[in-house]
Amino acid sequence: MTRKILIAAMALDIGGAETHIATLVRELRRRGNDVLVVSAGGVYAAEIEACGAKHITAPLNRRSLPAMLRGLLILRREMRRFRPNIVHAHARIPAFLCGILKKLGGKFAFVTTAHGVFEVTRATRLLSDWGSRTLAVSDDVREYLTANYDLPPDDIRLTVNGIDTERFSPDTDGSAVRRELGIPPDAPVALTVSRLDESAGDPAAKLAEAAPELSRAIPGLRVVIAGGGVLDSAREARLRLRVPELNALCGYDCVILAGARDDIPELLAAADVFVGVSRAALEALAAGKPVILAGGQGCGGVLDETSLPDALATNFTFRGTPLAETEDLVRDVSELWNGSGFTNRAGFGRALVLERYSVTRTADDAEAAYGEAAAAGVSAAMCGYYGYGNAGDDEIMRCVRRAAYDAGMRKITVLSRAPRSTEREFGFRARSRFNPFSLFWTLLRSDLLIFGGGSLLQDATSTRSLVYYCSVLRLARLCGAKTVIYANGVGPLTREANRRRVLREVSRAAVVTLRDKASEAELISLGVAPEKLTVTADPAFADAPRQSA
């Protein structure tokens, strides 16, 4: 199914979330979707446009009121132009702004992705909107969402940081990057890729501080730091001032600041070992590089089979553990160069990514969430012989509503003869089927009318009931709701006028399913096209538990 998808992100500079977005956009475009990205821009903006998506610049990375207001106006303008049926927000500011537009009547399904955990305050709670469905990149992120934002577990889906293993491959050539950075072909290289801000840039700074000692243990070593600061980061400024001092201690240009870049596959190909976390670590594993997990939220040391379970549970961040110190990085980098397991660890990492972290899985997860969010936003009315105290029809009502709920629909209203009794006994939202104002208002606010099941389209009981049901179907269409005739029994229809009524309404229904072959034959005899009809089971029997023989 081709969709129009608007993706809202803070920015597209170096970072795990940003790379995740760029990879997802490429795969969604490859599948034929129309994609618009709105963000503050960055190194991945050109890459996104190169795959056929469009990028619009907006200040979605700033918490100041003027910036957020401007971002909101740009998002509103682009939504009016693009008319997306899916809006997928990454990070709290874009999600908050998109949530405002959704509440103001936005006709789109709203999905968010949570890439990590952050400090929770009263203000951040107010500035958080998680949409109809939320994708979480790890178990601990899902637990964080349920614990801090009271999100229903059923509304959260786990996903992965899908890696393009063709781009991130041991076969990629890194020689051009080495020449650009002035690194001899045989010099050992330790690489880190990170935003150089206060929250994420600490391991990069400590790896730089480790350079003098590492250069003595590993002759000719280069420490390459790729990434830029966010909003004139003080961390990046301090690091740029410190690097000449560190290189003087090394006796050569050991520490190299490569800046923000989008040629990460070639950088990884030029490296021998990677220091970092999350998505960047997975990309390094896909490229066949040994990895030391050290980031702004924890440190797991050298990744191997022993540390893998904790890495998987925290999206390769070791969130909540002590941060790496300079001496930890000296020990781990030295161990990789001097230990016998260097090559084995490299092969282990790529096999792990190929097995668990495919781009296909990421896009599949996103598209499944899009479908669920679209269904959750659908307002449905149910029409049948409900509210009469008939046990069989009450069971049909339960089964039809459960099927709609299982399909992701949450806004369901039952048209009942006794709405208060239906609400009290079954806990379903109900409105009167005979009050014309209630009936009209319910259908006007519904996207869908689920008609059935049961034998509603027949005149053996009376023509009056048939006229009523056909009128409800017709009124639903006039109110703009699609009609679904669900697991109905049809007939007998003895009067010619009644046969014409049923032919007209069934032919105009969006979907028609029938509970038996006799009903199918009856409709075909009326002139309904056979390809429009699907024979299924009576909902009460279809929902019944299977008995063992």
How does this model look, in words?
The protein has 22 helices and 21 strands. It is elongated and about 100 Å long.
Keywords, please?
about 550 residues, alpha/beta, seven-stranded parallel beta sheet, 22 helices, 21 strands, about 20% strand, disordered C terminus
Topology:
Blueprint lengths: L3 E5 L7 H15 L3 E6 L5 H6 L3 E4 L7 H18 L3 E5 L1 H12 L5 E6 L7 H5 L6 E4 L2 H11 L6 E3 L16 H7 L7 E5 L8 H16 L4 E5 L7 H17 L4 E5 L4 H7 L2 E4 L1 H9 L4 E5 L2 E5 L5 H6 L12 H13 L3 H15 L2 H18 L2 E5 L7 H16 L4 E6 L2 H8 L3 E3 L3 H9 L3 E4 L2 E4 L5 H16 L3 E9 L5 H13 L2 E4 L2 H10 L6 E3 L3 H4 L7
Helix pairs in contact: 1-15, 3-4, 7-10, 8-9, 8-13, 11-14, 19-20
β-sheet strand percentage: 15-25%
Count every beta strand, where a strand is a DSSP E run of 2 or more residues. Answer: 21
Radius of gyration (Å):
30 Å
* Distance from first to last alpha carbon: 41 Å
Backbone shape: elongated
What is the helix fraction of residues, given as a range?
A: 40-55%
Helix/strand-derived category reads alpha/beta
Pick out the low-confidence regions: 544-549
Number of helices: 22
Mean pLDDT: 88
For the biggest sheet, the summary is: 8 strands, parallel
Summarize the structure.
The chain is of the alpha/beta class. The radius of gyration is 30 Å and the shape is elongated. It has 22 helices and 21 strands.
